[in-house]
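Hi V.,

Quick status before I head out on leave. The structure for the redesign project is tokenized and pasted below; the design run finished overnight.
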């Protein structure tokens, strides 16, 4: 099931170390696809080296590293880092020395091979998880890491197949640990000769390599994005060009909840019934799913607001279906799950519902040119969840009926009886006629919202020396969090604006955006 697939993104190598340590402790066999190995086992204080050395029983280790003869790839990598080919070569031999030491100490049973061509991404395969990253996103410890866990083991088996395919490439060179001294001496002589030719100005050609017909790590690129906003141009392009689109989410409001949302606009622009769109959301009547969503969310949205967001999304989708000749179907499920997913013809992108901190979980984008493995794998997981949702009599939603149903009130009943007014000329916010005592920066924040009524004010916009998000927090402290939500609409990743029922007066007066007005 899709719900069994869990992902977690880490900003750098050090954040991923606990997950790597856990995987190493639990695994009898570990496969490593690395560049030089220096970040994991290339020095005595490296996390992997220490963990392997402390093992009470040996672990089997298979490691693929770049050949020190691949000077072309090292020269390419030098453009992204301060490291020269000589430094990379030193790290590779250093890692091999440590592998031999661990082998002789009885800590590991090791096999190592050197691949001829540097791929775009690397990974570690453990018993129940895979940790992967791409050097295209940064070099070394700065590269974001992604941890994938799936209890059924199918994803691990998929990556194991990719690893074994790369392991078996005919251009690979096996490291002879039984005759290590003579083997490395011979390799060093070849490397020194190649470096001499490079220093003499000779062109460094890539080792001849032909991609395998089977899925290979070289056919796949991995990217990590901090939030879905960064992904919108890519998502829209894929939506417009893919014959089939699968989306699994919770409420859909950041993509579908407004008529002018980029993703909703892209769906409307397709206009071809031959293109399939399948969307899975949580059922608004499922108390368990809604409560889990509220707990997992960083937006502070209540259960009632979460249900409203789902209904808003369904209405927009219903209007799109009614207006366009689209093969569009939506199903609702009773469980939240752990993952958000887009699956297209050529790529997949996903993120976890379970946030690790105050910020939303990053999104992971995988693109595979061959499409033989990853895209079908995620599609099959989606289909499993789709069929399960279909087993619920209330799970298949007729969007036409949803649109025809009475719309829910745009605001709570008690809010309609209250009056919220911001006087931009007097710098005064009143609620039910009561003036609110606010800080100078908070008033400037409200003034900025009034000056651009209807547009979103970015969260990091500086207001009187503070970011807008800090001013929003100050407003909640002054008038209460619930009341502040009635005044300000927050869309995480985009910004703030006044709620539609807030009355703004004197916003068109000249000079209102100058700070001097408040001082007078």
């Amino acid at each position: 099931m899709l719900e069994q697939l869990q992902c977690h993104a880490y900003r750098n190598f050090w954040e991923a170390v606990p997950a790597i340590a856990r995987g190493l402790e639990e695994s009898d066999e570990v496969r490593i696809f690395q560049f030089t190995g220096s970040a994991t086992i290339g020095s005595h204080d490296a996390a992997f080296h220490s963990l392997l050395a402390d093992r009470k029983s040996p672990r089997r280790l298979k490691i693929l590293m770049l050949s020190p003869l691949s000077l072309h790839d090292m020269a390419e990598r030098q453009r992204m880092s301060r490291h020269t080919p000589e430094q990379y070569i030193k790290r590779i031999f250093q890692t091999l020395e440590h592998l031999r030491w661990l082998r002789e100490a009885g800590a590991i049973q090791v096999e190592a091979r050197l691949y001829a061509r540097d791929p775009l991404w690397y990974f570690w395969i453990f018993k129940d998880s895979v940790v992967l990253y791409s050097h295209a996103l940064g070099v070394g410890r700065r590269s974001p890491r992604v941890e994938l866990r799936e209890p059924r083991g199918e994803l691990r088996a998929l990556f194991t197949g990719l690893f074994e395919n790369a392991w078996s490439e005919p251009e690979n060179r096996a490291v002879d640990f039984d005759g290590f001294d003579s083997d490395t001496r011979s390799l060093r002589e070849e490397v020194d000769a190649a470096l001499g030719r490079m220093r003499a100005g000779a062109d460094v050609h890539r080792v001849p390599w032909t991609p395998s017909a089977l899925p290979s790590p070289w056919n796949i690129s991995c990217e990590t994005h901090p939030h879905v906003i960064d992904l919108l141009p890519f998502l829209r392009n894929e939506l417009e060009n893919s014959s089939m689109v699968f989306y699994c989410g919770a409420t859909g409001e950041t993509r579908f909840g407004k008529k002018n949302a980029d993703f909703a606009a892209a769906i409307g622009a397709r206009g071809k019934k031959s293109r399939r769109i399948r969307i899975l959301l949580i059922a608004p009547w499922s108390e368990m799913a809604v409560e889990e969503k509220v707990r997992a969310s960083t937006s502070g949205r209540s259960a009632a607001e979460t249900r409203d967001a789902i209904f808003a999304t369904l209405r927009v989708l219903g209007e799109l279906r009614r207006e366009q000749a689209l093969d569009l179907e939506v199903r609702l499920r009773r469980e939240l799950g752990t993952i958000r997913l887009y699956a297209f013809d050529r790529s997949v992108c996903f993120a976890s519902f379970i946030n690790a901190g105050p910020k939303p979980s990053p999104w992971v984008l995988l693109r595979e040119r061959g499409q033989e493995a990853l895209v079908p794998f995620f599609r099959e997981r989606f289909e499993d969840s789709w069929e399960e949702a279909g087993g619920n009599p209330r799970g298949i939603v007729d969007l036409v009926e949803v649109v025809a149903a009475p719309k829910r009130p745009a605001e709570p009943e008690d809010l309609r009886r209250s009056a919220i007014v911001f006087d931009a000329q007097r710098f005064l916010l009143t609620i039910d006629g009561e003036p609110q005592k606010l800080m100078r920066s908070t008033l400037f924040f409200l003034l900025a919202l009034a000056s651009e009524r209807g547009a979103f004010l970015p969260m990091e916009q500086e207001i009187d020396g503070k970011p807008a998000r800090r001013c929003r927090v100050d407003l909640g402290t002054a008038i209460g969090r619930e009341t502040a939500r009635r005044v300000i609409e927050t869309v995480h990743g985009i910004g703030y604006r006044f709620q539609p029922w807030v009355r703004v007066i004197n916003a068109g007066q000249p000079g209102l955006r100058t700070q001097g007005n408040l001082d007078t």
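Above is the designed sequence. The chain is about 40% helix and 20% strand.

G. will cover questions while I'm gone.

Best,
W.
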